[in-house]
Amino acid sequence: MIKLYGSPLSSAGRCYWMLEELAVPYEVMPLNLREKEQKSEAFLKINPNGKIPAMIDGDFVLWESMAINSYLAKKFESPLAPKNLQEESLIQQWSLWGLVDFQEPAVSWMIQEFFVPAEHRNQLVIENSKKALPRVLEVLNRGLEGKTFLVGDRFTVADVNLGTVTDILLGLKYDLSAYPHIQRWMTELHSRPAYKKVAQMRQMPK
Amino acid sequence: MIKLYGSPLSSAGRCYWMLEELAVPYEVMPLNLREKEQKSEAFLKINPNGKIPAMIDGDFVLWESMAINSYLAKKFESPLAPKNLQEESLIQQWSLWGLVDFQEPAVSWMIQEFFVPAEHRNQLVIENSKKALPRVLEVLNRGLEGKTFLVGDRFTVADVNLGTVTDILLGLKYDLSAYPHIQRWMTELHSRPAYKKVAQMRQMPK
User: Fold this and answer.
1) Which positions 41-70 of A are in contact with B (Cβ < 8 Å)?
2) DSSP string, A27-61
3) Strand (E) positions, chain B?
4) Under an 8 A CB cutoff, do A96 and B93 touch?
5) CB B189 within 8 A of CB B154
6) So what's the pLDDT on residue B206?
7) Cα(A125)–Cα(B103) distance, rounded to whole angstroms?
8) What is the Cα–Cα distance from A169 to B75, expressed in whole angstroms?
9) Mean pLDDT in residue range A189-203
10) Residues on chain B touching A62 (C-beta within 8 angstroms)
11) CB atoms B99 and A100 under 8 Å
12) CA-to-CA distance for B146 and B29, rounded, in angstroms?
């Protein structure tokens, strides 16, 4: 059975979403972040970065949430997996872009907003994110123009990967009204039963 | 024929390296960065980010250098391509990690060092990179322990993608003596004829 480390509230959330889409059984591995168990010798053997998520399938260990999602979709021969090399490359393109250009400014802002006490907040980080995001959202909006999903005219790994980044902006109450294609796409993603199931998990008390 | 936008001195350098490894003919597309041609309407239709590299193969357009390299290796059935899903996932894992955890701090430092005039240099950015890199290099060093290459016991896309990030540290004269596996691996990479050819291109005047 697939073993997954990390809470649905973290970037592991996109792996939960993928697993729910696949409707395969999986086991959530306990990891006490408050006691820094992710930095323990035992966990560093799984992910040397001391970070979640990490996935174990038999004796195969994999980290990086977007790599895990690609693996899972292919392994379980899901319709979310690419059907050919061009689709695969576009999923990879959007995922790499999603991490660097999009998730980085969104997460930096979120950390300042929700995890740094007001007196230590770095306003410059927030300002830089606010400057970077409109350009990024313009690219995503353009990428979704005239399409229901990002790649291959159907819901794929790319939508799960990028959809979880866009959700960070919801948490920040970011005004997305200038990006109608993104808004339409998000409504589509949020209507999926697997998405709803993970959203429910995220609200559950530990 | 494969068309590539971007100079070998930029992050397109890793796509040049891949193309030289594949030994396939390719066409370098002219783009005048000084005149901001990457922001022109014509180029934004190719890469809406207004950035290099971008690749065109027939009517297929792809951006993100690491996605381009995966595409090229598979398209030309190179031994650098993954042989199975586990190898493919590990190449993706290292590439995603290489961009966010490793390239981001290395490039931020390089930009301050070489492109920002001394009086405007942001010392905090440099300090943050200096703090982040040892942890990152530890992970890479550990990932190369007892192995010649990163994935699959042979030279793959992962080595090209990560090797070009490590080279940024050479430009910064970063002391790598604490990371013997990285040093051995770099010597291996630098001995490849395709690498040498691109290194020569990088030194050529425009």
Assistant:
1) 48-49, 60, 62-64, 66-68, 70
2) EEEP--TTTTGGGSHHHHTT-TT--S-EEEETTEE
3) 2-5, 26-29, 54-57, 60-63
4) no
5) no
6) 47
7) 19
8) 36
9) 95
10) 89-90, 93
11) yes
12) 41
Size of interface A-B (CB pairs under 8 A): 85
ipTM for the assembly: 0.95
Instruction: State residue B3 phi and psi, 5-degree precision.
Output: -110, 135
Query: Which residue in the set B48, B60, B67 is minimally distant from A139, CB to CB?
Result: B48
The full set of domains in chain A, from first to last, is 2-79 (3.40.30.10), 85-192 (1.20.1050.10)
Model pLDDT, residue B204? 66
Gap between the Cα atoms of B188 and A142, Å rounded? 42
- Contact criterion met (CB < 8 Å) for B64 and A93: yes
Determine if residue B178 is left, alpha or beta; phi over 0 gives left, psi from -120 to 50 gives alpha, anything else beta: alpha
Query: Where residue B203 falls among pLDDT bands split at 50, 70, 90?
Result: confident
Q: Is the pLDDT of residue A206 over 80?
A: no
Q: Which of B35, B22, B28, B26 is nearest to B10 (CA)?
A: B28
**Among all residues of chain B, which has the CA nearest to that of A139?**
B48
Q: From CA B181, how far away is CA B194, in angstroms rounded?
A: 22
Q: Report the distance separating Cα B196 and Cα A21, nearest Å.
A: 46
Most confident region among A35-44, A196-205, B60-69 by mean pLDDT:
B60-69
CB A17 within 8 A of CB A195: yes
Contacts of B100 in chain A (CB under 8 A): 99-100, 104
The percent of residues in chain A predicted with pLDDT above 70, rounded, is: 99
Token look-up 């997954």 returns A4
A142 touching chain B per CB within 8 A: yes
Quick: pLDDT tens for B86-145. 999 999 999 999 999 999 999 999 999 999 998 999 998 899 999 999 999 999 999 999
**Is A92–B139 a contact, with Cβ atoms under 8 angstroms apart?**
no
B 145-204 residues with CB < 8 A to A: none
Q: Which of B59, B94, B96, B144 to mutate to test the interface with A (most CBs of A within 10 A)?
A: B96
CA atoms B98, B102, B107, B113: torsion sign = negative
Model confidence at A109, in pLDDT bands (50, 70, 90)? very high
Q: Give the CB-side neighbour count of residue B114, counting CA atoms within 13 A.
A: 11
